[in-house]
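To the wet lab folks,

You asked to see what we're planning to order before we commit. Fair enough. Below is the target structure as tokens, and below that is the sequence we designed to fit it. If anything looks off to you, flag it before the synthesis order goes out.
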């Protein structure tokens, strides 16, 4: 009887996995870990604060911290990534200081093994209206 149950469950699990949208677990392991903002270029205005730590966790979550101190983080949430288009999105689930007028969608790629580039994002509170930025992060 156990073989029948397992044999029915495996096709069902693979069917569900194929029909689900890209989610946090789809983020490649190369993105995981702590990244520090090295450069930024923006259309419109520049964010008020640099991202001193952008961390991608093993469970597909992210943490953004402007002023690192012990276990403090400004906001956090889930990551989704589409490997075909390089579309990258952050969804805020909570935080100690969640900025308004952020843009958490764009694209992500590596320029070399140690530089993560996020294009089209605005990860901090704007002075007035915001804009879009190209962030370059290093380890």
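Sequence we intend to order:
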């Amino acid at each position: 009887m156990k073989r029948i149950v397992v044999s029915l469950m495996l096709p069902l699990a693979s069917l569900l996995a194929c029909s689900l949208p890209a989610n946090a677990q789809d983020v490649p392991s190369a993105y995981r870990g702590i990244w520090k903002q090295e450069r930024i270029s923006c259309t419109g205005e520049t964010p008020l604060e640099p991202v001193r730590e952008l961390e991608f966790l093993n469970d597909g979550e992210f943490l953004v911290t402007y002023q690192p101190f012990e276990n403090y983080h400004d906001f956090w949430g889930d990551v989704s990534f589409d490997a075909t288009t390089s579309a990258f999105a952050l969804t805020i689930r909570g935080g100690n200081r969640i900025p308004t007028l952020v843009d958490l969608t764009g694209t992500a790629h590596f320029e070399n093994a140690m530089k993560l580039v996020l294009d089209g994002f605005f990860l901090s509170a704007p002075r007035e209206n915001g804009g879009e930025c190209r962030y370059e992060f290093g380890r």
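Structural context that might help your review: The beta strands are 33-44, 53-56, 61-65, 75-82, 87-95, 105-112, 115-121, 131-138. Residues 45 and 130 are 6 Å apart (CA to CA).

Thanks,
Computational group
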